[in-house]
């Protein structure tokens, strides 16, 4: 994993994650700042694969996983339409700048259009200025601030 010789937009392959990809998914989630074990990643892949409103896609170059995106779709009462939320997007540092993130977003947009989605949302931590600049370059607009509360009690 992480070997990205001859990286380029045309060289990247985007496909649905499978159970056998659990090690790669765990590594990529760790790179994004959400570490998990291979077994935990396998459980997450299984949940996504059995839910038609969720998708987990891997980007590969020469058979090596170098990026992933996860999304789910839902009906928004507020907006009166289907919307999609990208819940995770990561491209390994050595693979950045080669169009892989754009390819992942294009695939998400294609899936969303086929599902009747009219709006896509992405949340980005305020410290991830590089990611925010990337989203803006891809046509995404700053919109709202998100508030969270962990229910770990």
UniProtKB/TrEMBL annotation:
InterPro entries attached here?
Acyl_CoA_acyltransferase, Bact_Acetyltransf, GNAT_dom
Under Pfam families, the record lists: Acetyltransf_1
**Name by which UniProt lists this protein:** GNAT family N-acetyltransferase
Q: Which UniProt keywords apply?
A: Acyltransferase, Transferase
Where does the N-acetyltransferase domain start and stop, copy by copy? 12-153
Taxonomic lineage is: Bacteria, Pseudomonadati, Pseudomonadota, Gammaproteobacteria, Lysobacterales
Which superkingdom does the taxonomy of this entry point to? Bacteria
């Amino acid at each position: 994993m992480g070997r990205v010789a001859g990286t380029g937009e045309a060289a990247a392959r985007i496909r649905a994650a499978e159970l056998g990809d659990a090690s790669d998914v765990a590594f990529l989630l760790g790179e994004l700042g959400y570490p998990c074990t291979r077994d935990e990643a396998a459980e997450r892949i299984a949940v996504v694969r059995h839910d038609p409103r969720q998708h987990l896609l891997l980007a590969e170059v020469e058979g090596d996983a170098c990026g992933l995106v996860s999304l789910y779709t839902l009906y928004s009462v507020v907006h009166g339409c289907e919307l999609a939320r990208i819940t995770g997007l990561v491209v390994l540092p050595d693979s950045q700048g080669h169009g892989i993130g754009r390819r992942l977003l294009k695939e998400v947009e294609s899936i969303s259009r086929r599902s009747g989605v009219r709006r896509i949302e992405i949340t980005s931590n305020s410290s991830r200025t590089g990611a925010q600049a990337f989203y803006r370059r891809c046509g995404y607009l700053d919109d709202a601030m998100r508030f969270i509360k962990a229910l770990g009690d």
